[in-house]
Amino acid sequence: MDGPGTITWDEYLENAEIFLQMSDRISDGWEFRGDKDVPGGAYIVRRKKHFLSADNDLNYCSVHKNNNVDDDLKFELQQDPFEGSSAIEKPLVKEHHILWSMSYSVPVLYFNGWKSDFPGINPITVEEAQSFVYGTPLNYMELSQSIHPILGTPFLHLHPCMSHELLKITCKSKNKLVSWLSTVGPGALGLKLQPEYCELTL
Fold first, then answer.
1. Which residues pair with 178 in a beta bridge?
2. Fewest C-beta atoms under 10 Å: which of 70, 79, 100, 179?
3. How many Å apart are CA 110 and CA 19, to the nearest integer?
4. pLDDT tens figures, 106-158
């Protein structure tokens, strides 16, 4: 599918390569995986580890700010009743994948989060992921769990149905992938792009 509100596989690759060059320049940790010679067969990915402080049972937790932590991240955790301190740091591993949908001809954002030091252990739920969106729940049609089309494992993802409209709005952007991601990112475990990426859209 081509036309307004879409991005071709070649455009996706071109935009992604430029995005990764900026990531390397600012040490942001994004990388390519998969087979670029197969349309839809490659994606860009970043995994980051954060530390959360659990103050109360089932309350939002603040994040300790350091070089690897977002300063605006919030997350809901249960504190271990056997822990003696209320300010114990707990890990959260977040992983974001940006794929290209052959059906929709748009980028698609898949992501996961694990309340653990190790990916795959104690994954977050759809309900927990919704708590990242500034306290405003997402519609279940927008955020859901599905099978990663390349890895074949369960991931959360934002449905691409509205991406056509976003790409139409940003049709004059020099990097549609960055413009799209800066809009949908906050709905995916608080993904926030560094300001330097905005240079790519001008």
1. none
2. 70
3. 17
4. 999 999 999 888 788 888 888 888 776 545 554 545 788 999 999 999 999 98
